[in-house]
């Protein structure tokens, strides 16, 4: 089944929008910690990885995963700067740097992952004129006699009992 270019472009646009939403949500929540545990980084990273893998697996299109990744990274860059009121969503801290590089690494990993949809084709060249097979030594295999029948080579009905 061939996918038209219109539906392909629409899937890229939808993927970019979904990626942007996940990028914004993860960026806003990345700094949440529960004691020493960076819950925001963990949950945001898992969510972004899951949506990238889902888009790649469901569409079978690397372009859709690229669009989702560009949406994520683009929204992270847009809201990472200083806002009009002077607020900063992604501070220049270890957590902020890890979040930025984590999302970029996830996007690269999902995009670079090989496609298993098509199996590799064997490329060994077959010879044009294969060598003929040697003649078979065995020409026929005799079948085993059924129960109650004489063995091949023996006279039918003859019995050789020792008396």
Task: Tell me what you see in this structure.
- The structure is a single chain.
- This protein is an all-alpha fold and 163 residues long.
- It has four helices and no strands.
- It has helices at 5-29, 39-59, 62-80, 94-112.
- The radius of gyration is 35 Å and the shape is elongated.
- The model has no long low-confidence stretch (mean pLDDT 83).
Short recap of the structure:
The chain is an all-alpha fold and 163 residues long. It has 4 helices and no strands.
Count, helices: 4
Largest sheet: none
Residue-averaged pLDDT, rounded?
Answer: 83
Number of strands: 0
How much helical structure, as a percent, in the residues?
40-55%
Rg over CA atoms: 35 Å
**In terms of structural class, how would the helical and strand content be classed?**
mainly alpha
Topology as H/E string?
Answer: HHHH
By oligomeric state, this entry counts as single chain
Unreliable spans are none
Taking the alpha carbons of the first and last residues, their distance comes to 82 Å
Shape: elongated
Strand content: under 5%
What's the helix and strand layout?
Layout: H1 5-29, H2 39-59, H3 62-80, H4 94-112
List keywords for this structure.
163 residues; mainly alpha; 4 helices; elongated
